[in-house]
Amino acid sequence: MPRFTHRSFLPVLFQKDEVTQEWSTSAEDDKVHPGPPESKQTTKGVVSSDFHDSETESVQDGVKQAEAITAAWSRKALLVAYAGMLLVFYVNSLQQQISGNLTAYVTSAFSQHALLATTSVMSSIIGAVAKLPIAKIIDIWGRAEGYMLMVALCTLGLIMMAACNNVETYAAAQVFYWVGYNGISYVLDVFIADTSSLKNRAWLFAFTTCPFIANTFAGPAAAQAFYLHSGWRWAFGAFSIIIPVICSPVAIIFLRGRRKAEKMGYLRRDASGRTFFESVKFYLVQFDIVGMLLIIAAFSLFLLPFSIATYQADKWKSGSVLAMIIIGCLCFPAFAIWERYFAKVSFIPFHLLVDRMVLSACVLAATLFASFYCWDLYFLSYLQVVFDMSIENAGYIGNTYNIGSCFFAVIIGFIIRATGKFKYLALAFMPLDILGVGLMIYFRQPDSHIGYVIMCQIFIAFSGGTLVVCEEIAVMAAASHSEVAVVLALLGLFSNI
Q1: Is residue 436 within 8 Å of residue 382, measured between CB atoms?
Q2: Where are the alpha helices (DSSP H) in 110-140?
Q3: Cβ(189)–Cβ(202) under 8 Å?
Q4: Between these two residues, 463 and 127, which has the higher pLDDT value?
């Protein structure tokens, strides 16, 4: 069973274990001085400070902006920004809960319920791969620009879902929606990393998932109310208005923070002096277009055939399916060679691609994702068909994982903050995840009591909440501040493929 592949990398999982406190404040001016939000490995295996990336020419403008804005912000402004972000996470999680509970009814409305898994897989793949170019956007142009672009894409996807008349349009809308939805959360996570120490990041990341606990009950009830009284289209149409309204204050906070940094002299915006064609050449190099296209093509061409092969006339013998798999496989070594020997500005720093801690965390993320969705994709349909549950009650049970993982992640975050250690937590909870998924195979049968299924979800929830936090801290401990966005995108790619 693929789930037990965890054992193959247990000896080298998360070699760097300790994190140190890097957050300091000045009582005199009430400004937040984050010190190095990121750090590098010392000879003792302790993550230490190094916030001098901005003094090097290799640091891109978006990173310099983030450092300048962080230095200019007062504690009050930072707390207001965090409050605005928490509201965004709440509304996004509520919409995602409603959307998740209605997806089966949307595909069924077009007599294509069997496409539920394919639609989910395709949108997840594209949404995950998109995080890599998003990382370059926010590193080159800035956090605010990337955030506003993601809000626009999410809103566009919701409008398309509300107006779609066939499952193909709905599938396309899902791509825009998931790129925007994942992108909003991703940019805000990077912002949290910009403004906090590595040691505090575990519980801050966990705290932003708390809205999922509240929406565990609100989401399914709202989904059923929309379905019975307004129709599923209004469930998407209403949030195409709500989301941009709720997200706008955070964008304004970002822009005001940048303006304040400019007035205080922390950030200077000079004309580039480049012509149009020089600018095009500059951004082609900065975005590492070749590397970006190679890695996107690699994951997309390799993974998509696993979803669309069954719909081809010749199944796995189809020439197009085989060609996609072969070309996708060839793109992986081509990307590594390009990044190692030819890229002037690396899309993903090569040392991160060979770092044992980063690789272990990415393999863990991919394994957790695969093991979870092996049983979760049709879970709501299973509850409604086998146990004759309503949308609301099925949603409550389906959200057991959200309650358990989000609640327990906060506890784990505080433990990491107090102890500065995460490796042994990951090793301790990995067997619990294996147990939960293994028992789910046995108990997810028509004649099993629903209580046993919920028990399995609780096991998976507690272990999942722990492992997700640990893998995030692991990759950030291995990266410098200028590499945080890319390394989180790389982890997000593996956790959504």
Answers
A1: no
A2: 116-129, 131-140
A3: no
A4: 463
Higher pLDDT, 407 or 9: 407
First to last CA, the chain: 18
Residue type, position 285, single letter: V
Please name the residue ranges forming H helices in 264-355: 276-286, 289-303, 305-308, 319-337, 350-353
**What pLDDT is recorded for position 3?**
36
- How far apart are the C-alpha atoms of 206 and 210, rounded to whole Å? 7
What is the residue type of 25? T
Q: What is the CA radius of gyration of the chain?
A: 22
Where is 95: in which H helix or E strand?
A: helix 75-109
- Mapping DSSP onto H, E and C, the string for 262-274 reads HHCCCCCCCCCCC
Neighbours of 200 (CB within 10 A): 20
Is the pLDDT at 266 greater than 50? The verdict is yes
Helix, strand or coil for residue 40? strand
Confidence (pTM): 0.78
Q: Are 48 and 204 in contact (CB under 8 A)?
A: no
Torsion angle, CA of 281/286/290/295, rounded to 10 degrees?
Answer: -160
d(CA 89, CA 81): 12
Sign of CA pseudo-dihedral 459, 477, 4, 205: positive
List Cα–Cα distances, 334 to 113, 220, 298, 331, in angstroms. Answer: 38, 45, 9, 5
> Residues 329, 333, 334, 339: is their CA dihedral positive or negative?
positive
